[in-house]
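Chain A, query sequence.
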Amino acid sequence: MAHHESFVKAIAEILVKQGSLPQKEVAPIIREFRASEKERFDQFLIDEGLVDEAAMLRALSTYYKVPSFEVPSHLFKHELLRMFPKEIMTAYAFIPLEVGDDESIMTVVAADPKNEELLPIIGKSVSYDIRFLVGHYVEIQDAIEEFYDKALTQVRSSMFSEDDEDFDLDDERDVIIYEDTDDQDSSDDQDDE
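Chain A, predicted structure.
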């Protein structure tokens, strides 16, 4: 909780210095955030229209002392995302961006690049040195979901063609379960009908 409180105060202070948030509004905004159900102060400010995404990204970059990255403007590489379990990327809000030309450094966009658990978690899947960039939490989550939604669609469509009448739904379900366990529940519900 101490980290969370220091984050809220520091981001507010940075936004004031940037001219993105009036000093006199900081205390009421923080009180409003605490009374809300939002977990993330940065997203609260964006959702409430108090700060635009570009200003928040600049503030996050200043706070974390790493460059920022606009996640929606990028097409992420499938081979890099497949190096990490979806659940890990969403739980820790990170997405791999690229591997350098010398094949020794992986650049990763994270919502909280200073999370002490992040580097060891990434290290369980890859042995690259890691260079962090900061991105918006929601945009990182959306990019991960979009990747897995597209991957799942591609797997489904490649499993059978319109001419193929002999496809096996159990085979499709096995692939879906492997790709995205969230779809298992809806598949099971449909089988019960």
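Residues 2-64 form one domain. The first strand starts at residue 94 and ends at 99.
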